[in-house]
Amino acid sequence: MPIRNVQVKDKFAVTKVAENCAPLLRASVNGTYEFLARCFQRTFFVYLDNSEIIGYIVGFPNTSVKGEFWLYQVAINEKYRGRHIGSQLMEKFVNQVKADGYKRIRSHFQFVNEHSKNLHEKFGFKICGQDDRGWFAEVIF
Fold first, then answer.
1. Domain of 22?
2. Which has fewest Cβ within 10 Å: 18, 72, 81, 116?
3. What Å distances lie between residue 39 and 32, 60, 86, CA to CA?
4. Phi, psi (degrees; rounded to nearest 5) at 81
């Protein structure tokens, strides 16, 4: 199976994928991906082509709102887009969040990021707000 949970050693490969997605995604520093891998491995998935990480999805619980989960980032290396990799990652992520008992997933993406907008809509996310950079979206189970 080309999807697996992240490992701490994946932090550099994940950073490389994120950097490939600029300017639609703001890459975090290696330390952030290492932290997310250590603390939220259960909801941090990578997609592999042979042994190369070409995409990922990561999120974490909102500790301020009971039952709410945040989708932090979805990124697919540009040359692999259009192969439903984002959909496969999102399905894995949503299923894990549901299995863990959460009732809502919230997310944020840039106004110009049509790939992200389409992916969110495919999984039932509805626009619920905006800020100066983009849309807030949520799906409630």
1. 3-140
2. 81
3. 10, 9, 22
4. -70, 155
Domain total for the chain?
A: 1
pTM: 0.95
Angstrom distance (rounded) from CA 129 to CA 12: 33
| End-to-end alpha carbon distance in the chain | 27
Indicate the SS3 state at residue 68: strand
Q: What does each C-alpha distance from 68 to 32, 37, 62 come to in angstroms?
A: 21, 20, 6
> Residue 89 to residues 2, 3, 74: CA-CA distances in angstroms?
10, 7, 8
- What are 18-65's pLDDT values in tens digits? 999 888 888 887 789 999 999 999 999 999 999 999 999 999 999 999
Q: What is the mean pLDDT of the chain?
A: 95
pLDDT digits (tens, 9 = 90+) for 102-113: 999 999 999 999
